[in-house]
Specification:
By secondary structure, the chain is α/β, with parallel strands linked by helices. It is about 25% helix and about 15% strand. It is globular, with a radius of gyration of 24 Å. The structure holds alpha-D-glucopyranose.
Length: about 525
């Protein structure tokens, strides 16, 4: 019997569908494009793809404003294309995870159209409506993550409705049983079609305070940051009753075989781990974003790993993320040399890694002038996410092999050097590093399911041991530019099996291990206690 499930031993690869591969020349990636590139994904060695939303949508927030939960936007293809995608992915041994966006719909969704049509419409209570204060102002001080108040006045029906994001993304009322049943029906629709799980969008937002109390001011707010952060979100997010819903979603998935429930949850570790559920009957993988949110240094990352390991419920499975469609790319955040160190970190930590498309090439944030911003967050508050959503760089050809048309976002400036074709056979490329790491992780149970034990080191170096019954690896990562020595002590000797600088591979390692600036080493230890 297998001791671990696919989503525990596996590696997840996030595809932002608009930007992966355009099959019809309209400049926007699509499902047939993803199908064309499944061989690449399989060659990379990962186990599952998570596809950002492909449902019908007016695209106010590029698909995170859904107007029909059980169909495919014609820009991306058809339901038949999705069936074909699921089938061909499965035949290549790849699982398919869909993005599910239950917190809000598009304002064009028939549910909202009905709800706003009149105060006594049967669907009125599916959304969050409140009267104005006596002076006409919104019912409370809650802010939208994309700028301005979270309440929009509906002239026709004379009430405000709540939206945590754009006014085109009204929040559903998850205290309403019919809303839950409608959302669960949509989940079943996809599970019945063979989808292997969901990444649930803003899971910690689903329930709001029943009394809609004002959010307190954030004492740590630094002016100039996203104005949304000027308040804490004590009453608009992470309410105790949200966990009921997480359990219901999990129970639904458990009616199927080996499906995975992933939750997008940006919370401190102590509150994040509650999303595993009181009996680990909640989300399988509440996303752990610490490698994205923390400053890039060995001390803080090391402490965060230990805190997280310590906070995890008994048999909860950890996970790690380096980037996604909402965050600056790792290669831009820490530089290309450290991005190689980060790759080793992501793929040797204990827990399921999620990779973001293009990070395996070392793709950097695109240079997009404000006048060309597409992302509403960029247009409204200047924090554009377009740079991390530029087209996948397949080749040095015009369009970079992404599209024969005009790409919806400009290509990265480095696409002629940084692309799949150029990097595939280059032994020192980022792609080769990723591919070798993936392969090693898949082959060595110490890396995929082994234990984690940190080592005390000097300088800006993070070191840890991963161990299973019959093998043991030491990972040494230098987050800084200064070279130094790491003492192996009772770990004994070993051999470098993978390194950011391949010249070091094969080196036999003794007690005093020299490590260069920006270097990462993976050492197979001789002794396995
Ligand atoms: C999530 C998505 C983000 C989207 C937001 C609103 O954070 O990852 O892209 O804009 O939810 O749906």
């Amino acid at each position: 019997m297998r001791s671990h499930l696919w989503w525990q031993t596996g590696i997840i690869y996030q595809i932002y569908p608009r930007s992966f591969k355009d099959s019809n020349g309209d400049g926007v990636g699509d499902l047939p494009g993803i199908i064309e590139q499944l061989d690449y994904v399989a060659w990379l060695g990962v186990n599952a793809i998570w596809i950002s939303p492909v449902y019908p949508s007016p695209m106010a927030d590029f698909g995170y404003d859904v107007s029909d939960y059980t169909d495919i936007h014609p820009l991306f293809g058809t339901l038949a294309d999705m069936d074909r995608l699921i089938d061909s992915a499965h035949r290549k041994g790849l699982k398919v995870i869909l993005d599910f966006v239950p917190n809000h719909t598009s304002d064009q969704h028939p549910w909202f159209q009905a709800a706003r049509s009149s105060r006594d419409n049967k669907k009125r209570d599916w959304y969050l409506w409140r009267d104005a204060k006596p002076d006409g102002s919104p019912p409370n001080n809650w802010l939208s993550a994309f700028g301005g108040p979270a309440w929009t006045w509906d002239q026709a029906s004379g009430q405000y409705y709540y939206h945590a994001f754009l006014k085109e993304q009204p929040d559903l009322n998850w205290r309403n049983r019919e809303v839950r049943e409608a959302a669960y029906a949509a989940m079943r629709f996809w599970l019945d079609r063979g989808v292997d799980g969901f990444r649930v969008d803003v899971l910690w937002h689903l329930i709001k305070d029943a009394a809609f109390r004002d959010n307190p001011a954030n004492p740590d707010y630094v002016p100039g940051q996203n104005p949304y952060e000027s308040l804490t979100h004590a009453y608009s997010t992470d309410q105790p009753e949200v966990h009921e819903i997480v359990l219901e979603m999990r129970a639904l998935l458990d009616q199927y075989s080996e499906r995975v429930l992933i939750g997008e949850v940006y919370l401190p570790v102590g509150r994040l781990v509650a999303y595993y559920g009181p009996k680990e009957d909640g989300a399988h993988l509440p996303f752990n974003f610490q490698l994205i949110t923390l400053p890039w240094n060995a001390r803080q990352i090391g402490a965060a790993i230990s805190d997280y390991e310590g906070a995890l419920p008994a048999s909860a499975w950890p996970n790690w993320v380096l980037g996604n469609h909402d965050q600056p790319r790792i290669a831009s955040r820490v530089g290309l040399a450290q991005a190689r160190v980060a790759a080793i970190l992501l793929l040797t930590l204990r827990g399921t890694p999620t990779m973001y498309y293009g990070d395996e090439l070392g793709m950097r944030d695109g240079a997009i002038p404000p006048a060309q911003y597409q992302d509403p967050q960029g247009i409204n508050i200047g924090l554009s996410r377009d740079p991390q959503r530029t087209p996948m760089q397949w080749s040095e050809q015009p369009g970079s092999g992404f599209s024969n048309g005009e790409p919806w976002l400009p290509l990265g400036l480095d696409y002629q050097r940084c692309n799949v074709k150029a990097e595939r056979d280059d032994p020192n490329s980022m792609l080769t590093l990723y591919r070798r790491l993936v392969e090693l992780r898949q082959r060595e149970s110490a890396l995929s399911i082994g234990s984690y034990a940190p080592l005390i080191t000097d300088g800006d170096v993070l070191a840890y041991v991963r161990q299973s019954d019959d093998s043991r690896f030491l990972v040494v990562l230098n987050f800084g530019p200064r070279s130094l020595f790491v003492t192996l002590g009772e770990l004994g000797g070993g051999t470098v099996v993978l390194a950011t600088d391949r010249a070091r591979e094969g080196e036999s390692v003794q007690d005093r291990l020299p490590i260069m600036g920006d270097e990462g080493l993976l050492i197979r230890l001789e002794r396995v206690p």
